[in-house]
Specification:
By secondary structure, this protein is mainly α. Helix content is about 70%, strand content about 0%. It has eleven helices and two strands, in the order ααααββααααααα.
Length: about 300
């Protein structure tokens, strides 16, 4: 029984960590390039909505044409739609922040507000309600051994950590990305296209945050639910800061939250505390631990500052 409980806790922690890790790694690209992206919360919602609706709408049409059709590939298409929409929303933030040099915080906040209102309009048009999409029959499969199976996005998120480390710290692309986030004028003087590199960083952050949303809607659940991100975009930003804009640090910070979330889920099932207190425990403990045991984080020097050539 103890082994079963342990495996359940580990699986729950990994699932809770996944959307945070994806979003935080995305934010790392954006902020290393010099653009603050607090729009991660909204992009997660847009990505989750795109994944759930695209799969559900294709299911309806394809099953109507052929009730016996094999539609196991649909959730993978949902991931593609989520990544595209996430990247598109990131591009909007990039255009406003980089081309028009608007305040990056205000631009991102506007996107977060849009992520509250626009899904409600879309859901009303499609499903005559403002809170949920219709459940899908085909969600992402579960991989693993019997008793310990996880969504493919869980494996992808954790494998992404060494990939991001290599890209950011061991490749010419990563060197240019970090250069435009630290000293854009110096980078420009040696021929690096600062604006282009910043576009790359923000769009990549949108793609990964969109995938985080897809995990919530078609990887962990089987439908989109209004505000299902539950503040994960902001927690991802906190993990990015406490992880000192480094993939390994981000992994540790997000795993910490995932562990607290798994413990809170187990505690909630025991009915020892009111649900509202249980739900707040992971956020409170994560902030206290990170603030108490992590040293002062130094952001990229040019983050949040528009570049004038």
């Amino acid at each position: 029984m103890d082994t079963i409980v342990l495996l359940t806790l580990i699986g729950s922690a990994l699932r809770a960590t996944t959307p945070l890790l994806l979003a935080a790694l995305g934010g790392l690209f954006s902020e290393r390039a010099g653009v603050v992206n607090i729009a991660l919360e909204g992009i997660i919602l847009f990505g989750g909505l795109a994944a759930a609706i695209s799969v559900q709408q294709m299911e309806v049409r394809l099953l109507a044409a052929n009730p016996n059709a094999n539609l196991a590939y649909l959730p993978w298409l949902g991931l593609i739609f989520a990544a595209i929409i996430g990247g598109f929303v990131g591009w909007i933030h990039a255009v406003i922040s980089i081309r028009y040099k608007a305040d990056q915080i205000i631009s991102a906040t506007a996107i977060n507000l849009m992520a509250i209102g626009m899904p409600a309009l879309i859901l009303t048009g499609l499903y005559q309600n403002t809170t949920t999409s219709q459940p899908i029959q085909h969600r992402l499969p579960l991989w693993g051994v019997s008793g310990f199976q996880l969504s493919p996005l869980v494996y992808f998120a954790f494998l992404l950590v060494p990939v991001v480390y290599f890209v950011v710290f061991k490749t010419p692309f990563g060197l240019r990305l970090r250069a435009v986030g630290e000293h854009p004028e110096a980078a420009d003087s040696v021929g690096i296209n600062v604006r282009r590199m910043r576009y790359y960083g923000v769009i990549i952050s949108g793609v990964l945050a969109g995938l985080a949303g897809a995990f919530l809607s078609i990887g962990n659940l089987n439908q989109y639910v209004a505000n299902m991100s539950g503040g994960r975009g902001f927690i991802a930003l906190a993990a990015l800061i406490f992880g000192k804009w480094h993939p390994v640090g981000v992994l540790g910070a997000t795993l910490l939250f995932g562990a607290f979330q798994a413990a809170a889920t187990l505690l909630g099932g025991s009915n020892l505390l009111p649900p509202t207190i249980v739900e707040s425990i992971p956020f409170i403990l994560t902030m206290l631990v990170l603030a108490g045991f992590i040293g002062r984080a130094v952001a990229p020097k040019a983050v949040g500052k528009p570049f004038d050539k």
